[in-house]
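hey m, so remember when u said the tokens were messed up on ur end? i reran from scratch. heres the input so u can diff it against urs
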Amino acid sequence: MRRYFGTDGIRRIANSELTPELVYKVAKAGAYVLSKHTNNTPTILIGRDTRISGTLIESAMVAGFLSYGANVKLLGVIPTPAVAYLTRKLNADASVVISASHNTFEFNGIKFFSNKGTKILDSLEEEIEEVMDSEKIQELSAINDKIGVSEYRQDLLDEYVYFFRKNFEDNLEKINKKDFVVGIDTANGATSVVAEKVFKSLGIKYKTINNNPNGININDNCGSTHLDSLKQFVRENNLSLGVAYDGDGDRCLAVDEDGNEINGDKIMAIISNYLKKKGKLSKDTIVATVMSNLGLNKYTENTGLNIIQTKVGDRYVLEEMQKQGYNFGGEQSGHVILLDYNPTGDGILTSLMLIQAILEEEKTASEVAQIIKLYPQAIVNAKVNSNKKYDYDKDKEIKLAIYKLEKEFTGNGRVLIRPSGTEPLVRVMIEGENQEYITKKAIEIAELIESKLN
């Protein structure tokens, strides 16, 4: 079992569990593993979100890279997908995003990207861990003129804005969007530095909320994990649509003009339908995860599309897409990958595709969202001992409770139990026809898991 990396890089409480000393070792080991097959001096990009610990972690990361002999370009506050895009555009050897995504400000994290702008494979993360915990780490020190140098390149954010102009400007100029106004919630995170620039450059009318980061308000009752303020904002201002990003900008969820949520599954249905009509949905297939609602399966059945489901994690969605030649996939949480544009979830990109789809249909957001009907779903987190979160399927009483419920739901619902990859939690998800009943059952199983695994 890996010691440091979870399903989305390393994520811990900053300066307590994610210490500068640990970050320094991760940087040295990461620079070695990701650039050992290159003959040139490696160049690594670093981006971060707005949390208060960002510059602390960044400083330790830079020190680790430079001491190994890698050169660094500091991008400053910038969305994760922008870092992925720039890694490929600049032919960098690797990149790092310092972010804890949708978590609260006290957490921070490290996500490595390959020279192709994709999150690195599990096997590479395991290799980095091996180097960190071996004597090899002591050997990875540059001396004299081999020490790396760093430079600040916040100006490269403009390249990301141009990426959207290049791909959307011509089409959006042809569409009537005169009365279409979007509410944007940047979660006081990384998209706060760029979302308005993008929407303004494309001539899309907008109003923003939660766009004043102070280091500790990132994801604080705002963004894609807390939609209530956006729902209210859209209704009060009679907006056409609301979009919410998470702290590092790789997720997007939305709300329609009445304030009703358009979650990741609905977004995938709307965009896949749009791409299919344009002849741009590769192999008429959506790649999703096992967490996607049963309604997405029914939608694909009814529209002649195919659906492939992977284990949870956008990296696994991407791996399947690349392996089989698909170009569209994502997660219920709002990680949507449009592989023809960027090899990672991109909140702003997702919102622009959604806006195009709605405008070209010449319908309201709520009308377009009716393309899919979701099953009621209940998700309850069981708080457990972090060393025991993978043991739920070893306990006889837990296994029996799950088996009985699965048998009861055959054909009319499902039960999915999944340990969190980043937190000491076991997530209990149940889908069925009666919201009150499945919520009750999810709570019961979560409480049983908590009683057994603490």
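this time it looks ok to me. The chain has a mean pLDDT of 95. if urs says something different then somethings off w ur setup not the seq
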